[in-house]
C-alpha cells in the first residue's frame, strides 16, 4: 500500500506516543496520569488527521478517560457468561467497562 | 507467612507455559505495591467520617423517581473529568530524573528513525520540516534565549506539552513550568542542534501535527 508521506510521519508519531506511554508505566506503575496524557495526545492526533488505528491498539485504550489499559495494573479483566462468553475489562481510574465477545472465528474488518 | 507467598517469583515451568518474562524483584515489588494501593480504599472512609462529624446531615424522604438512563456508549470527556484526573499531581517529587532516561532513549531512537540519518547527510531544511510535525515528549530541551533571564539555562526532559507551556523535569528532580512565549528552546540530537522559537509554537501537542506553518512576522524574542 502506498502511504502518503505526511501520514507516515503521523503514524510514526502515534506509534511513538503509544510506546512512550508503555515505557512510562513500566518505570513507575503508580503514575497513570502521564500515560493518560500521552494516550490523550495520541487520540487527538488520530482524530485531527482522521487516521485509522488498528483495533488491537484501540482495545487497550479507555474510551472515556483515555488511559492505557493494562490488565493487572490499570484495569481489571473478568469473564462473564450469558449464553455467549464475554470478557469485561474495567478501567480502574474511571470505572468505564469494555465488553468483548469471545469468538475465536471472528475476523475483523481487515480488508473490506 | 502469607506475605512471603505474594512476593515469590513465578516457577520456571509456568514461565515456559505462559510465555511470560519473570520480572526482577525490584520491579515486581513496585507493581505489587501499586496494585495494592489501587485496590484498597481506606483514605476515602476517613474523609467521610470527618465530613459527617462537622456538618449537619439532612435526613429527608424523597419519592424514588424512575430513572432510566441506559447509555451503552462511552460518554465522558467532561471538563470535570479532566480537572479531576488528567494533569500531574504531586508525583514528580515521588519520581526521579533517572526514571525518565529510558523515555529519552526511546525519543532519540524515534527521531533518528524519523529523519533517517545523522548530521552530515540530508540538508537541515528537510530535517526541520520533519521536526515540526514530530513529537517532543521525552526530549531534552534547553532554554537558550528568553525575555525573562531567569529561564535561560534551564534544561530537562519534557514531560507534558500544553497550549502555552512546557513542563520539564530538571536533573534536580524539579518540575519546571516554562511558558512558550518569548523564549527560544534548543533541541539537540546527535550533534544536530535545532532552535525552536516558542512564540510560534503555541498550539496543543495534538494540534501541531495538523498545522501548516507559514512564515509570518519577524523572528524576534
Automatic annotation (TrEMBL), chain A:
Q: Which InterPro entries match?
A: Rpr2/Snm1/Rpp21 (IPR007175)
User: What Gene Ontology cellular-component terms does the record carry?
Assistant: nucleolar ribonuclease P complex
Give the taxonomic lineage as stored in the record: Eukaryota, Metazoa, Chordata, Craniata, Vertebrata
* UniProt protein name: Ribonuclease P 21 subunit
The organism encoding this protein is: Haplochromis burtoni
Q: Which family does it belong to?
A: Belongs to the eukaryotic/archaeal RNase P protein component 4 family.
Q: Which GO terms describe its molecular function?
A: metal ion binding
Q: Which Pfam families match?
A: Rpr2 (PF04032)
A GO biological process this protein is involved in?
A: tRNA processing
Gene3D superfamilies assigned to the protein according to its UniProt record, in alphabetical order: 6.20.50.20
Keyword annotations for this protein, in alphabetical order, are: Metal-binding, tRNA processing, Zinc
UniProtKB/TrEMBL annotation, chain B:
User: Which coarse location class applies to the principal site listed for this UniProt protein?
Assistant: nucleus
Gene Ontology molecular function, alphabetical: ribonuclease P RNA binding
Enumerate the InterPro entries for this protein.
RNase_P/MRP_Rpp29-subunit (IPR016848), RNase_P/MRP_Rpp29_sf (IPR036980), Rof/RNase_P-like (IPR023534), Rpp29/RNP1 (IPR002730)
Query: Which keywords does UniProt give here?
Result: Nucleus, Phosphoprotein, tRNA processing
* Gene Ontology CC terms: nucleolus; ribonuclease MRP complex; ribonuclease P complex
Q: Where in the cell is it found?
A: Nucleus, Nucleolus
- UniProt keyword Phosphoprotein present: yes
- So what does this one do? Component of ribonuclease P, a ribonucleoprotein complex that generates mature tRNA molecules by cleaving their 5'-ends.
Subunit details for this protein? Component of nuclear RNase P and RNase MRP ribonucleoproteins. RNase P consists of a catalytic RNA moiety and 10 different protein chains; POP1, POP4, POP5, POP7, RPP14, RPP21, RPP25, RPP30, RPP38 and RPP40. Within the RNase P complex, POP1, POP7 and RPP25 form the 'finger' subcomplex, POP5, RPP14, RPP40 and homodimeric RPP30 form the 'palm' subcomplex, and RPP21, POP4 and RPP38 form the 'wrist' subcomplex. All subunits of the RNase P complex interact with the catalytic RNA. Several subunits of RNase P are also part of the RNase MRP complex.
Name the chain's protein.
Ribonuclease P protein subunit p29
Amino acid at each position: 500500500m502506498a502511504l502518503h508521506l505526511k501520514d507516515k510521519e503521523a503514524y510514526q508519531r502515534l506509534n511513538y506516543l503509544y510506546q512512550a506511554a508503555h515505557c512510562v508505566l513500566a518505570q513507575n506503575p503508580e503514575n497513570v496520569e502521564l500515560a493518560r496524557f500521552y494516550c490523550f495526545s495520541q487520540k487527538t492526533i488520530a482524530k485531527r488527521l482522521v487516521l485509522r488505528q488498528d483495533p488491537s491498539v484501540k482495545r487497550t485504550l479507555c474510551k472515556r478517560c483515555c488511559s492505557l489499559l493494562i490488565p493487572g495494573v490499570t484495569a481489571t479483566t473478568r469473564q462473564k457468561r450469558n449464553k455467549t462468553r464475554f470478557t469485561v475489562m474495567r478501567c480502574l481510574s474511571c470505572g468505564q467497562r469494555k465488553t468483548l465477545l469471545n469468538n475465536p472465528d471472528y475476523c475483523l474488518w481487515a480488508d473490506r | 507467612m502469607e506475605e512471603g507467598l505474594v512476593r515469590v517469583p513465578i516457577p520456571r515451568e509456568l514461565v515456559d507455559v505462559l510465555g511470560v518474562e519473570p520480572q526482577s524483584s525490584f520491579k515486581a515489588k513496585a507493581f505489587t505495591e501499586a496494585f495494592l494501593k489501587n485496590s484498597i480504599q481506606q483514605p476515602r472512609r476517613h474523609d467521610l467520617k470527618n465530613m459527617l462529624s462537622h456538618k449537619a446531615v439532612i435526613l429527608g424522604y424523597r419519592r424514588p423517581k424512575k430513572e432510566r438512563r441506559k447509555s451503552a456508549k462511552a460518554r465522558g470527556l467532561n471538563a470535570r473529568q479532566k480537572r479531576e484526573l488528567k494533569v500531574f499531581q504531586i508525583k514528580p517529587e515521588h519520581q526521579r530524573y533517572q526514571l525518565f532516561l529510558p523515555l529519552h532513549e526511546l525519543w532519540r531512537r524515534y527521531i533518528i528513525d524519523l529523519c533517517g540519518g545523522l548530521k552530515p547527510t540530508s540538508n537541515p531544511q528537510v530535517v526541520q520540516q520533519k521536526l515540526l510535525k514530530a513529537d517532543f515528549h521525552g526530549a531534552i530541551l534547553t532554554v537558550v534565549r528568553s525575555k525573562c533571564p531567569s529561564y535561560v539555562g534551564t534544561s530537562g526532559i519534557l514531560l507534558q506539552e500544553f497550549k502555552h507551556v512546557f513542563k520539564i523535569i530538571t536533573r534536580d528532580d524539579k518540575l519546571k513550568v516554562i511558558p512558550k512565549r518569548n523564549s527560544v528552546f534548543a533541541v539537540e540530537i546527535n550533534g544536530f542542534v535545532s532552535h525552536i522559537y516558542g512564540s510560534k509554537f503555541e498550539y496543543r501537542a495534538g494540534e501541531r501535527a495538523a498545522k501548516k506553518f507559514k512564515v509570518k512576522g519577524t523572528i524576534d524574542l
